[in-house]
Amino acid sequence: MPRFKLRIEYHGTPFVGWQRQDNGISVQGELEAAIFRFCGLETTVTAAGRTDAGVHATGQVIHFDLDREVSAERVQGALNYHLKPHPIAVRTVEIVPDDFHARFSALGRSYLYRIVNRRAPVAIERERVWWVSVPLDAEAMQAAARHLLGRHDFTSFRAAACQAQSPDKTLDLLQVTRTDEEIRIVAEARSFLHHQVRNMVGTLKLVGEGKWHPDRVKAALEARDRAAAGPTAPPDGLYLTGVVY
Amino acid sequence: MPRFKLRIEYHGTPFVGWQRQDNGISVQGELEAAIFRFCGLETTVTAAGRTDAGVHATGQVIHFDLDREVSAERVQGALNYHLKPHPIAVRTVEIVPDDFHARFSALGRSYLYRIVNRRAPVAIERERVWWVSVPLDAEAMQAAARHLLGRHDFTSFRAAACQAQSPDKTLDLLQVTRTDEEIRIVAEARSFLHHQVRNMVGTLKLVGEGKWHPDRVKAALEARDRAAAGPTAPPDGLYLTGVVY
Questions:
Q1: Which pLDDT band, with edges at 50, 70 and 90, does B163 fall under?
Q2: ipTM of this model?
């Protein structure tokens, strides 16, 4: 029963999210279907991060077991073939020990959030960024982001549906940088609460447009109340970029 | 009759190309339709470069006349509103003198060609790059590109359908750079023949994969025979990035 670890990329827009659901196609479901078409095996695929509908990945990590010896190279070629025409690509495949677990072995996760900040709508990058037409002050957003670093109770940035046992998380990095029209927000932590990145970005956007002083983000965090923070940013701009083991 | 100069962006995949045609939607047709919805005027829009089906633009320049005074800002807002849901965006609008002509006043055009060179297919950037799975040597491609710089008879890189009066063109820049998985080819000239950039890229790809020595590109150019050069690269990777006046 060899175990395979895959790094995968997907465009999240056509999917109901990572997880199999009855109301549409999922990344998990299409991967499991591709494995079945490849070798006739019904198996379950486990991911490091269960991304929501519309959220993308350039570095999602998954694992699954097969019932026979197959080379990593063959798994990559076969799955990329059988995944067509879905926008999912297998970037790398490794054979790993049986105790590797894509979700529970993960020591860190990295997300990128992309905002295009200009008057004109986006055409080429549609579905791939959050278009914000009001001018945003990236330096103010960065100043606000500093209040969220470290270990905190992130209840104010947690989705109601979040299944985590504790709202306490340690945010290792939250960095806002601007290059011309694009603002990039990089977030790193061992793990995140449901919607945490999008809720932090939606709150930083209020700072960026001048509706909030950067210090209000500290107050929002300390309130431990979802209503104290800003709205949830759309999924379009969010990318799971990497998982550390 | 004020004349307007617009810088526009579009994702080329859903269009039959810039030019109005009977067999599908065109960028020109949708812009003219948006102008009509905005102010009821039937007008003709002229572009600096008549891009082919599937070719994108981040810096296409167009002009048209209106029969009344309208602010540049209002034109931008109205056209972006009326262009929905097509992936066309008006980035800037200026009012220009009557003798400005998007095509004939242009002194230079810049194109970018994007190749993603990796074993895994592309998911997020699908339709937006040329995916090449065989490893390409970007330095060899750059060495080959040097042979094309300057004034030449570019018959070997000219589409059969090209309507230019002369095959003589001056190529000012053709630069190949690699960053991780992506190879970018930037081309600049006063003007290009039909398919010239895609034919040059298709030829450089043969050098990159080691099928051709870089010097063979010089021989292909000197042959003045389309059959002596490489195939036409797909439209997906090509962007009209800017026009100089």
A1: confident
A2: 0.93
- Which tens digits make up the pLDDT trace of B85-96? 999 999 999 999
Domain boundaries, position A238: 108-244
Judged by CB atoms closer than 8 Å, whether chains meet at A124 and B92 is answered as no
How many contacts, defined by CB atoms under 8 Å, are there between A and B? 56
Residue B207 belongs to domain with CATH number: 3.30.70.660
C-beta atoms of B120 and A91 within 8 A: yes
Sequence-distant (≥ 6) Cβ neighbours of residue A230 within 8 angstroms: A199, A202, A203, A204, A205, A206, A212, A220
Query: What sign does the CA torsion over A170, A189, A204, A11 have?
Result: negative
CATH of the domain at B71: 3.30.70.580
| Residues B178-223: tens digit of each pLDDT | 999 999 999 999 999 999 999 999 999 999 999 999 999 999 999 9
Chain A partners of B124 at a C-beta cutoff of 8 Å?
A: 9-11, 56, 58, 87, 128
CA–CA distances in Å: residue A173 to residues A176, A187, B138, B210: 10, 5, 35, 43
Nearest CA in chain A to B121: A89
| Domain boundary residue, one of A45, A61, A96 | A96
| Residue at a domain's end among A65, A96, A127 | A96
Per cent of chain B over pLDDT 70 is 100
Domains of chain B: total: 2
Please name the residues in contact with B211: beta carbons below 8 A apart, sequence gap of 6 or more. none
- pLDDT, tens digit, for every residue of A150-198? 999 999 999 988 888 899 999 999 999 999 999 999 999 999 999 999 9
Q: Among B22, B52, B65, B236, which one carries the catalytic annotation?
A: B52
| Residue B239 assigned ligand-binding role | no
- Asked if B11's CB is within 8 angstroms of A126's CB, the reply is yes
**Contact between chains at A88 and B123 (C-beta distance less than 8 A):** yes
